[in-house]
Write a structure and sequence with these properties.
four-stranded mixed β-sheet, 8 strands
Length: 364
């Protein structure tokens, strides 16, 4: 197929030699059930005992075959993308799709006849599995298929199209009516870093993109369609503000003076929708970061070791554990000559928005 053509799952190539070097995935700690060696969230084989590994998202645990000599107990099938992009998730027993719960929500993948696109797709799916890990931990709904009111969550990974004659068609990362589109060049570290610097963003990561765009999806699911607009407007402002004009003003003039006191990022100040999505993503950063720190016993003196970040009902517990941890991590980074790990300040106004997100998720 010509360069730039979009593929569906039906056009998959078997690229068994593919390796993904995307973002390091941690969350909590996992161990091989055969030899107890520590493994990573993306592991497909234990490097110590050579057992096949498969992650069950419903049980949040890895299962292993004993040195490839026996099937993994309780696992009917691997995800169909295991050989193509090393997806290590399993199919749950009640699933009819050949793809795991994460992969089956991807409707469009890039043209795989171009080798870099295979690696880009693998990195995108790797980050998306991190997203689905969180969505399942929070028990968040994924929408309803073919339902005009509750659109099912879908993903499209596309590339810019350059026709033989004519103008290039750009693909913009964003969300619309349940469909999250990601431009696959965001999977390239150098391109993403260029965009990060050009736009003055402290963070610009693949998982950050997914967490931000899923915020737009859940604004539709949990705010717009559930009668919470008045509470939303009290916390974030009136979303009826002309969106296109607000973004244009932001890109031309920048954020308002003193935005740091009210918004988690400069982009969040552009429009209430973006404020919500940025705050939503930040909430996911905090919860997942705390789970990782707790799993590795990295905690400050004020961090409650018995707190379960994904389940706690108190936003104050999360913030009180997170702030001392970030201070310590910033100090650690500075001690080896790096920039701050966490260049943010959680003001009272921002904490109030995080409280709104927290309540929204736990009441979903």
């Amino acid at each position: 197929m010509p360069s730039g053509t979009q593929w569906s799952h039906a056009d998959l190539m078997d690229v068994s030699e593919l390796t993904s070097d995307g973002e390091l995935q941690i969350m909590r700690r996992y161990f091989c059930s055969h030899c107890a060696n520590e493994i990573h969230f993306d592991s497909t084989v234990c490097v110590k005992c050579n057992s096949d590994l498969a992650y069950s998202s419903s049980m949040d645990e890895f299962q292993s075959s004993a040195a490839n000599s026996m099937p993994i107990s309780g696992v009917d099938r691997y995800c169909a993308n295991r050989n193509s992009i090393h997806c290590n998730w399993t199919l749950e027993q009640d699933e009819s799709s050949p793809f795991c719960v994460s992969c089956r929500h991807t409707l469009v993948i890039p043209d795989l006849s171009t080798a870099p696109n295979i690696e880009r797709w693998a990195r995108l799916e790797s980050a998306k599995r991190m997203l689905f890990y969180s969505l399942q931990k929070f028990h968040l709904p994924l929408g309803g298929q073919n339902d005009e009111v509750n659109h099912e969550l879908r993903f499209e990974f596309k590339s810019d199209l350059v026709p033989a004659v004519g103008q290039e068609t750009r693909v913009f990362t964003g969300h619309q009516a349940g469909v999250i589109t990601i431009n696959i060049v965001e999977a390239d570290d150098d391109v993403r870093e260029q965009h990060r610097v050009a736009m003055g963003e402290p963070y610009r990561t693949l998982i950050g993109h997914f967490r931000h765009e899923i915020g737009h999806f859940y604004w539709d699911q949990l705010v717009s369609r559930t009668g919470k607009l008045d509470a939303f407007r009290t916390a974030f402002g009136d979303e009826r503000l002309a969106y296109g004009e607000a973004l244009e003003r932001h890109y031309q003039s920048g954020p308002p003076l003193g935005w740091e006191n009210f918004f988690v990022s400069s982009y969040a100040s552009s429009h209430p929708w973006e404020d919500f999505a940025e705050t939503w993503a930040h909430y996911f950063h905090i919860v997942d970061g705390l789970e990782t720190a707790q799993s590795y016993a990295v905690a400050s003196s004020s961090n409650k070791s018995d707190m379960t970040p994904y389940e706690t009902k108190s936003i104050n517990e999360l913030v009180n554990a997170w702030v001392p941890l970030t201070i310590a991590m910033n100090a650690m980074n500075r001690s080896i000559g790096n920039s701050d790990f966490y260049p943010f300040v959680l003001s009272e106004a921002i904490s109030g928005k995080l409280q709104f997100i927290h309540n929204l998720i736990h009441n979903a």
